[in-house]
Design a protein that fits this description.
Largest sheet: 6 strands, mixed, barrel
Strand order of the largest sheet: 1-5-2-4-3-6
Low-confidence stretches: 1-25
CATH architecture: Beta Barrel
Number of helices: 3
Distance between the termini: 52 Å
Number of strands: 6
CATH class: Mainly Beta
Helix content: 10-25%
CATH topology: Barwin-like endoglucanases
Shape: globular
């Protein structure tokens, strides 16, 4: 019977369309995107890229949806903070709790962008560096 199979396919079609066509690719925008940054301590966890870093390294984590199954590892992001301060960070991990446009920054990178080391979320714009 073709009809039951077709009904089954139509039932799961919305799920299939919700998944990116190439989940291993890293989504890259042409322009800066707005997001927020929070601070994390890379010295206290092994990053998803398999490397351990110091808190004064300029490193970051991106939303798991942007991570692309380690395709983002080693890529650089330019981040501009609320006061106009900028920093370039290397992606070394993903962030499960981050929104799609949010980043986790090492204390050193966070301080350079936000101007101080303080807990919380702060608005930024950022862009993948070529």
């Amino acid at each position: 019977m073709i009809l039951p199979k077709l009904t089954h396919i139509l039932a799961i079609l919305p799920l299939a369309l919700a998944v990116p066509m190439d989940p291993s690719s890293v989504p890259v925008e042409a322009a800066s995107v707005p997001g927020t940054v929070s601070m994390y301590r890379p010295s206290q966890e092994l990053g998803a890229c398999g490397t351990l870093h110091k808190d004064d390294d300029l490193v970051a984590g991106v939303a798991v949806q942007r991570f692309g199954g380690t395709k983002a590892c080693g890529k650089y992001i330019n981040v501009k903070g609320p006061t106009g301060k900028q920093v370039s960070v290397r992606v070394v991990t993903h962030c499960d709790a981050c929104g799609y446009n949010d980043l986790r920054l090492s204390p050193k990178a966070f301080e350079e962008v936000v101007g101080r080391k303080i807990e919380g979320h702060f608005p930024v714009t950022w862009k993948w560096r070529n």
